[in-house]
Target: ABC transporter permease
Amino acid sequence: MIDQESIKTAAKTLQSQGWRTSLTVLAIVLGITAIITLVSLGEGLNASVTKQFQSMGTDTLVVLPGKGFVESAFAQLRDDDDETIETVRGVSFAAEIYIASQQMEYKGERKTRLVIGIDPAQMSQMNIIGLVSLESGRVLSPRDQTAVMVGPRLAEKTFEKIVYVNNEIKMNDAHYRVVARLSKATNSFYGNFMDNAVILNSDQLTKIQPGIKPNRIFVKLDEGVKPDDVKERIENELELRHNQTDFQVMTPSQVGETAGSVIGLIQTILVGIAAISLVVGGVGVMNTMYMSVTERTSEVGVMKAIGAGNEQIRDIFLTEAALIGIIGGIIGTILGVGLATIITIAAQYGGFDLEAVITWPTIAGAVLFSMGLCLVFGYLPAKQAADLDPVEAIRRKG
Model:
């Protein structure tokens, strides 16, 4: 049983070993730092997704090209899909958007950013679902072929100089006048990409980039209908028109589940990698303990000769391993919290809604895991020390 005397003896031994102890603790610190950082950021990302998911409500569907996440990057919807969807029972309206990437120039500075095409006739619908809300200026009209609206992040953070209404942005060798600055999208789940983009008439975007098709269609449902029922009707209608299933209709719950699953998978993989580095640190603890047993063989023999039992000897070495784990766990936790906080600040400065979630159970679990791991890897060296024959141990000088 580990007692106060074992703790004092173990602490003095670790202190006397200096650099060796520091390097052993460092390996544990790095592993715990990585785990705390990844877990807290992963939980924060999940919380952010949940918050954004709640902001989209339960009465909005989204239609994407392709049958899966990978295919959506290469497949296309059709120009009249929104009209087809609006004929479906339970649909209030369907609003499509076009998404492209263009190099733009503002006051001599060039950047490549998203350009989003929206039919001016659907602008009010975009406002209803929380994607387009004016901060200043006016919405686009069908006659606006050289006018654009800009998202708040693009206006404030993309260029060195702030973009104001009536300023000009150059794209594709043409000048476009800014007629509006948008407020941050209230539907943050779908609207984050709008905040850092230039919005223009979809007709004009198809001229800039011929052959472009709608990237997604937002579907607002009638009050009181069941999203899953409307989804099934939309799928049946689009499949009939397309003669194939080259699209996907996502309900709010599906979007949330998909995002949560992807985040969870990534978090598990990263934490697993960090845990491997911690196991490597545990092997380092074992090697250090074996060296300590070898160097202190005579000392162990003397302790046994004056009455120390096998369990007492074992407990002294196990206490050393536990202290390494506790110290490494505490320092690693502090560094992990600090690193997660720095990443959070950097993400928020870049406009990404992320806040690290750090809980006491996570902190306690990390420290206990670190201590337990070191005890596991320290057990065999401790047992070796406890099993030493006192006479033979005294004869050896280590």
Q: What stands out?
A: The longest helix spans residues 252-295.
